[in-house]
Amino acid sequence: MQSTTLVLLIGLMAVSAFYLGRGRSLACVGGPGKGQALHSLPGYYGYFVAIWCVLPALAVLLLWVMIEPRVVVALVVDSLPASYESYSAGELDLLLNNIQNLASGDVVSVDVDAVLSGAAELFNAHIARSRQLLAVLCLGIAVLGGALAWRRINPELRVRNSVESVIRWFLIAASSIAIFTTIGIVLSVLFEALRFFQKVPISEFLFGTSWSPQTAIRADQVGSSGSFGAVPLFTGTMLITSIAMVVAVPVGLMTAIYLAEYSSTRVRGIAKPLLEVLAGIPTVVYGFFAALTVAPWVRNAGESAGISVASESALAAGLVMGIMIIPLVSSLADDAINAVPSAMRDGALGLGSTRSETMTKVILPAALPGIVGGILLAVSRAIGETMIVVMAAGLSANLTANPFEAVTTVTVQIVTLLVGDQEFDSAKTLAAFALGLMLFVVTLILNVIGLGVVRKYREEYD
Amino acid sequence: MSKEMTTRERVEAGLGRRRRKETMFRTVGVLATGVGIMFLGVFFATLLAKGSSAFVQTFVQLDVVLDAETIAPGGELDLAYADFEGLVRSSLRKEFPGVSGRTERRELYRLVSTGASYQLRDMVADDPTLIGTTQSLWVPAASNVDMLLKGNIDAAVDESLRPLSDAQIEWIQALQDSGRVETRFNLALFTNGDSRDPELAGIKGAMMGSFYMLLVTIALSFPIGVAAAIYLEEFAPRNRWSDLIEVNINNLAAVPSIVFGLLGLAVFINYLGLPRSAPLVGGLVLTLLTLPVIIIASRAAIKAVPPSIREAALGLGASQMQVVFHHVLPLAMPGMLTGAIIGMSRALGESAPLLMIGMVAFIVDVPGGFTDPATALPVQIYLWADSPERAFAERTSAAIIVLLGFLLLMNLAAVIIRRRMERKW
Which are the contacts of B213, defined by CB distance < 8 A and separation ≥ 6? Predict the structure, then answer.
């Protein structure tokens, strides 16, 4: 039986369990009119039975599905002739892969012999048996659980409390997923990064100035020893981020000031949604625009000014990234400006200062912490931005501060190292996780400071 | 400045300078606001200029003799081995009997797309009685022909600098003169999967991939997000644990999306052994990515429900759980739905994490389920943007227009829900 049909069947059983439970609770007190003699509403008795029917069965199903492949593979390996015992782990993996492909009717990479087809048949037989067993077990547990709960029903049973506590645990579990996500990110990135640092010393990674991530296939290969000094990536990321900030911070800030202080309601009503559209455009679209429109334009402009500009210059990527970040900066700055109490604004205006004087001498200094926090968040966003730089920035690690040259960034290297087939024991693949760790740590620090400043500042004026 | 100046005089003396500053400041503000909006204008203008032509496509009319001897030798039709390409070629030769020589003929064959023979095959497969007849049908032209007629290849430049030879351009001219060239709506763009040939490449595979992915995402992230928001707003005690969750959610919303891709690669694919390139894994990663957005929006919606509603329900004897599920949740639902749609539109536009979990493969087949290899619409855009063919640039823009169209629809739906259903208290 397919596990989807099994889940559907369990669902069906849950529905009938609900009605059975509800019916029994009413029968206990003698008919639908006597509901008030029950501790809880009749529906809660239904939920109670349904929960006991479904939850244990689903738990078994989940556990089974997780364990099944390992057990079946172990059984198949045991059944192989003795000659296969000398196989290395890699060869065995390949063999198992072929057996599984043969079992599911896919293409097999070697000639099919009796051993292989026998193993595949055994594999299929085990899977079929396991599925039968699972179906029987699950349905049995569902019936058993439901029946036990059904028998326990009596008017004094406080089912609402138990149903509500199940719901409460579900709510708690749902809210904990955020924490598990963070833990998952940290662990997955950290473990692979540690494996990387066993191959490449951490000092070389952090302070080395040469980045050429290759691992040798043959020992005598030219340039076989890859070098993993990530400094050029960090400087490249910083270069593009600073170009983006040079564009986004003044423009975003002035936009926020204009929209908050000067513009009429009508202009604001048009300009704000338009800026939100800018924020909603997918980054891959910005990347396309950067690579195909802005980069050639920057190069032509540079050429006519007599500067040689690389076709994947940091300038083009940075400019477009800056435009992408304008809405973020302007909305955070807008929040900060609006949080300044209007008494301060009115006071300054009442003393005869012009609007610009009020803004630059009173409101901006008061809003500064909020604005700085917002800028930190924007920097974190720029550092982590991937698609624009993947499409518009270069691949070669170049240690330079010249915006007209091509540089590469941390995110670009993560993508190039991980797209395509990977083997999880080569330094090349693991390097991507080390870079991911750096990226996560740096953006985390920026976010924590930025969010903290923004929130604290908001509370101060509330 | 003399001591006799009164305060008033001194203020008036500086007034001109201050007013000039004020005007300057204001102008800078206008300019800054203009920069963003101007970019938006330039952006949409170039997009439409580049992409709109991809919605039409050049077709060539051919009279194909469905010769029984060529495709069904001995009266037996084997679709896998039948030489439909030969039929297309012979019909081209018949159209231009003057063309001889291997190189010339090969150039001639390059005028129509390789899709022509597939089209013939499908026709014969549908109706085997057509064998032996002569059919006049419209087949897609090769992408270079399409580009020439759309004006993207300049016939005036030197022959060595353009992908079409002089002879080919003459033939196209001849076909045009005899009314055998037509531009039609490019249906293939919406019904085909990806292809190496631009004239056959479509976004259906990518759209289906995105669809399955969003299905997984919404099915998981909406219930979980709403549940988490309910717990944090209505039940969570103010302690370290709930503070930790709160800080975590805010941080996750700002973690670079590519890091979620690393998580998906390490946990879902490497550790749990889920298939690569599958919409299921993509959906799981996007769930984790959109959860913070949905939680934050749902919490705001719950916060907006006035406490008097809760107090009234509690006063009538409802339990805390009943208050939430019978009263607060229905009232907060419009805000939650809006948040969910905005989260989904973010998920639809996301591509960086999908690159990590193998959804960048070249996949021709349209995925039919959650575990079939698939790609997503934004990733398709990325793949096409990297292709060197001129015709793919046009299709990339068209795919972007489609993607932005979907995003616009979703945001419109969010606005409508907010307008229609939201209450003011």
Answer: B279, B282, B283, B286, B347, B374, B376
CATH architecture entry for B204-421: Orthogonal Bundle (1.10)
Query: Does the beta carbon of A274 lie under 8 angstroms from any beta carbon of chain B?
Result: yes
A146, A236: one domain: no
Q: Are residues A250 and A359 in the same domain?
A: yes
In whole angstroms, what is the distance from residue A456 CA to residue A447 CA?
14
**Is A362 found in the same domain as A239?**
yes
pLDDT tens for residues B173-189?
888 888 888 888 988 88
Of A138, A157, A176, which residue constitutes the final position of a domain? Answer: A157
Residue of A nearest to B259 (CA): A436
What tens digit of pLDDT does each residue of B234-273 get?
Answer: 998 888 888 888 888 988 988 999 999 999 998 998 888 7
pTM: 0.88
List the CATH number of the domain containing A347: 1.10.3720.10
Residue numbers of B between 218 and 237 with CB closer than 8 Å to A = 223-225, 227-228, 230-232, 235-236
B37 and A271: CB-CB below 8 Å? yes
Say if the Cβ atoms of B259 and A188 lie within 8 Å: no
Quick check: A274 and B40 CB within 8 A? yes
What are the DSSP E strand ranges found in B279-318?
Answer: none
What residue numbers bound the domain in which A427 lies?
A: 225-461
Neighbouring residues of B173: CB distance < 8 A, sequence distance ≥ 6? none
State whether A387 and A265 are in the same domain.
yes
C-alpha A261/C-alpha A338 separation (Å) is 10
- Cβ distance B235 to A168 less than 8 Å, yes or no, reads yes
A379 touches chain B (CB under 8 A): no
